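Suppose you are handed a protein chain with no further information: no name, no annotation, nothing but its sequence. What can you learn? This example shows the usual starting point.
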Amino acid sequence: MTTLQQIRDWGATHHPRWLVIVRVGLGLFLFAKGITFMHNATLLDRLIYGGASLAENQTHWLPILITWANLLTGTLLIIGCWTRAMALLQIPILIGAIIFNAQRGVFAPESELILAILTLLLVLFFLVEGGGPLSLDGYFEKNKGRGSHGDILP
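A reasonable first move is to predict its three-dimensional structure. Written in structure tokens, the prediction is:
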């Protein structure tokens, strides 16, 4: 049995139902951060690139990628679809957020270092734990091999 299978089996047998609330809360938080970044794109652009300005017809691609990744991962974590893949996608973004916030310091105005670290820990937890039984991941795993009418496929 591979390590990934052992992690998956452990997650399936040790998943309390209250973790659904934590997963949905994490998804709502990531989705809200995506909305915040979309609403105030210049803030994220300034955080990443400093004061470097662009010509009028140019845009930076990284803030757009981070915004849409937060919206996508937040939505899919809320419903519990591809939970581990979405957690894996979010890890580099959160590491970047920790690096940017660490440069400014914990007590700097608008610093979200502690929040970024807490979010990274939760994302790492759900990378191991998965979506659990009350998620689309759990539903698909439970109904693997069934046809559209509930019949077992040959």
